[in-house]
Write a structure and sequence with these properties.
Elements (H helix, E strand, L loop, with lengths): L2 H13 L8 H16 L3 H5 L2 H6 L3 H8 L5 H7 L19 E5 L8 E5 L1 H17 L13 E5 L6 E3 L2 E4 L1 H7 L9 E2 L1 H5 L4 H11 L5 E6 L1 H15 L13 E5 L7 H8 L4 E8 L2 E5 L8 E3 L5 E7 L28 E8 L6 E11 L4 E7 L13 H15 L5 E8 L5 E8 L7 H15 L1 H8 L2 E9 L2 H9 L15 H12 L2
Parallel strand pairs: 1-5, 3-6, 3-7, 7-8, 8-9, 17-18
Antiparallel strand pairs: 1-2, 4-5, 9-10, 10-11, 11-15, 12-13, 13-14, 14-15, 16-17
Helix pairs in contact: 10-11, 11-12, 13-14, 14-15
Length: 508
């Protein structure tokens, strides 16, 4: 009998505190006041007169009319650069001990996003809430005695002057509480291996000595790890190595594109629990099994704002126009894509992280990630967002009984001078008629998006499809020194990047 597991499960049942019945609007009002109060004596707080905002009748209305939107380049150029000169009390009290390295999805130069002790505590608190929420998934008692494979970036962080640098997953793993270390795999030694391929090789070699009950990590890299373990042990599925695997915690990207390929690798059903951990903070997590939506963490050091995701508010590079209208949680609506804006306990203020979300339940504060602002394709008025593209991929999978785990697209003129959408689809199924696939994809997008239909009737001449091995997408990330960790494949490329991509594909 799983005595320890029953005890742990009983404690979780007793302590379960994350509730869909929370007053999320009130949580957010209190969070904004907390952020303003704590940062009012910083340079940023003095510059924007936080004390006056706090004393006003409507702090939020004054907050958004006083403080501009910031992306990374703007806040770094105007404020965060001072942190790298050793200054403190800039946008948050003190000086951060950590900086999260994030190159985004397409950038070549790493961003350095401050991670304060307050943020580390917020991430830890979110992790505890996630564990408490597992109560709702009706797992057996012995699950709580199994080990958890957390596949992130290396925990061998770099000391740089007066701070430590690394990806947020590596920083979080390096700060795992002592009581959790016995459950954590691949363990401290393997997690410190810098080279991704060496780390995965070591995981494969050691895999059978672990009793893994849960996996956690970015889907594309988790699939590569499972494929390596399966191949190394010459078995059919990952359950042949880890028979007690019951949960996969996804994160940072929509899981939909990976459902079919993931199911093929696991062989048996697993609970897929979505989370939303970005370099800037732990934003949301799934709290109940009857939905694949995630609940915003409205009482955990992040204040959220939302800009309707409309073409007139977005620049060609995906950045937000400064006069774009913004609302708080109190005024959001269902079935509307929003650009997510955050202010945090790491000193990010009205900061665009580049993601778009949609609310599925306003009262419960539940959302789904729908894409990236940079991946919004509006050439010749087609207005395609990533969620529309993902849906089209799922329809192709069902129609042709294939799996498409990765894809990328570019809108450009062909040799005939006409505009086309050029798609590269990652699939192991190559013996398919490309014109049939292209027509099915075109029809799916027409049915899902009236703006795309209008574009197809006018300036957009058609769709061209190329099928390639999914491994080429991972090799592309490797070439750009972005293998593993928090890396996400760019879904939409500009013509310059797409030219590099097509040359890269030709040599594979």
């Amino acid at each position: 009998m799983a005595i320890l597991g029953n005890i742990i499960k009983g404690v979780i049942n007793l302590r379960n505190s994350i509730s869909s019945e929370a007053n999320h609007v009130q949580n957010q009002k209190e969070t904004l006041e907390f952020l303003l109060e704590k940062a009012k004596s910083t340079e940023f707080g003095k510059h924007y007169k936080f004390d006056e905002l706090l004393a006003s009748e409507d702090p939020y209305e004054n907050f958004k009319s006083t403080i501009p939107y910031f992306d990374y380049d703007k806040i770094h150029t105007e404020w965060w650069y001072k942190l790298h000169k050793g200054e403190k009390d800039i946008t948050w009290p003190g000086h951060p001990d950590y900086f999260a390295l994030s190159s985004g999805t397409t950038g070549k130069t790493s961003k350095r996003i401050p991670v304060t002790e307050d943020m580390i505590e917020a991430i830890r608190s979110a992790g505890i809430k996630q564990i408490l929420a597992i109560k709702n998934f009706d797992l057996p008692a012995d699950f709580f005695e199994k080990e958890i494979m957390m596949l992130g970036s290396s925990t061998n962080l770099d000391l740089h002057n007066d701070h430590i640098e690394g990806e947020i997953s590596g920083i979080s793993a390096s700060r795992i509480p002592f009581w959790f270390r016995g459950f954590y795999k691949p363990g401290e030694d393997i997690s410190k291996i810098d080279d991704w391929d060496d780390r995965i090789q070591k995981i494969a070699e050691t895999a059978k000595s672990w009793d893994i009950g849960a996996l956690s990590g970015i889907p594309s890299w988790m699939e590569l790890m499972m494929e390596k373990v399966i191949d190394y042990h010459k078995v059919e599925t990952i359950h042949d190595v880890w028979p007690n695997l019951k949960v996969y915690t996804s994160g940072g990207v929509a899981f939909g594109p990976y459902q079919k390929s993931f199911k093929r690798l696991t062989g048996k059903p697993v609970h897929v629990i979505d989370t939303y951990l970005a370099s800037e903070g732990f934003i949301a997590l799934q709290t109940r099994p009857e939905t694949n939506s995630m609940q915003l963490l409205t009482d955990n050091g992040i204040f959220f704002e939302f800009v309707p995701f409309q073409p007139e508010y977005i620049r060609p590079d995906g950045s937000l126009k400064p006069d774009s209208p913004c609302i708080s949680l109190e005024d959001v609506e269902l079935e509307q894509d929003y650009v997510l804006i955050i202010s945090t306990v790491s000193g990010a203020w009205r900061y665009t992280i580049g993601d778009t979300i949609q609310f599925t339940d306003v009262k419960k504060g539940e959302i789904q990630i729908t894409g990236r602002t940079k991946f919004f394709l509006n050439t010749v008025g087609s207005q395609l967002s990533v969620n529309k593209m993902d849906t089209a991929m799922r329809e192709l999978e069902d129609q042709f009984d294939i799996d498409i785990s990765e894809y990328t697209i570019c809108a450009k003129r062909a040799e005939d001078g006409e505009f086309y959408h050029f798609w590269y689809l990652g699939t192991s199924h190559k013996n398919l008629d490309l014109s049939t696939i292209a027509k099915a994809l075109d029809d799916s997008l027409k049915a899902a998006n009236k703006n795309y239909q209008v574009a197809r009737d006018k300036a957009l001449n058609g769709v061209k499809v190329t099928l390639i091995d999914p491994a080429i997408f991972q090799d592309w990330s490797t070439r750009n020194k972005k293998k593993g960790g928090q890396v996400k494949m760019e879904r939409v490329m500009n013509e310059e990047k797409f030219s590099e991509w097509e040359n890269f594909v030709k040599i594979h």
